[in-house]
Design brief:
By secondary structure, this protein is mostly helical. It is built from eight helices and no strands. About 80% of the residues lie in helices and about 0% in strands. The longest helix has about 35 residues. Keywords: Membrane, Transmembrane, Transmembrane helix.
Length: about 190
């Protein structure tokens, strides 16, 4: 039964291709006859303008297609608010305050964050569960911020990662906690 269906599909597809080819041939011969009737100079101008019109249509269609590809990654307002709240939580008071505020964001992270951001957040969350400060926290936040920027459409091509990390280190409560902790200040 499947073989019969494949043969029938092949016959229908071949018939459609033959019909398209025959229609194209008839259309071209019709246009050639029409161009023979008119003045040759006018025909040349008509052909050139037709080619320009077709090329313009292709350029416009290409631009629309490329624009549509970019719109697949629409930024939801909830996502921007979530990422903003994440950054505010990062700078919240001490380790416990930070952990509580980030815990409140988790259910929203699961829904709105991209896979890359969520993966980096899970790594950060593992480090935050430790009781003592961890020197890798600032680096993990840098990674999550880069993932957030990419999710929001930034390309991060010209960004200096070390300078970005210094932004998180400057007046950062975690860095201050680490400096107070004698175990990590050595």
């Amino acid at each position: 039964m499947k073989l019969l269906g494949n043969i029938l599909a092949f016959i229908v597809a071949a018939g459609i291709l033959v019909a398209i080819g025959w229609g194209g041939y008839i259309g071209i011969t019709f246009l050639v006859k029409q161009y023979e009737i008119i003045n040759p100079q006018f025909a040349a101008v008509l052909i050139i303008s037709s080619v320009i019109l077709l090329v313009s249509a292709l350029i416009i269609a290409s631009a629309i297609r490329n624009q549509d590809k970019g719109s697949d990654k629409q930024i939801h307002p909830e996502k921007a608010v979530l990422y903003s709240r994440f950054m505010e939580s990062w700078y919240a008071g001490n380790h416990e305050d930070r952990r509580e505020k980030l815990k409140e964001l988790e259910k929203h992270m699961i829904i709105w964050a991209s896979d890359d951001v969520l993966q980096e957040y899970l790594k950060l969350n593992e480090l935050l569960r430790e009781e003592k400060g961890n020197p890798q926290l600032v680096a993990k936040v840098k990674d999550i911020v880069i993932a957030i920027r990419e999710d929001l459409g930034a390309e991060n091509k010209d960004i200096d990662i070390e300078k970005l990390q210094k932004l998180f280190s400057f007046n950062n409560p975690i860095e201050q906690d680490l400096e107070k902790n004698t175990e990590f200040s050595r």
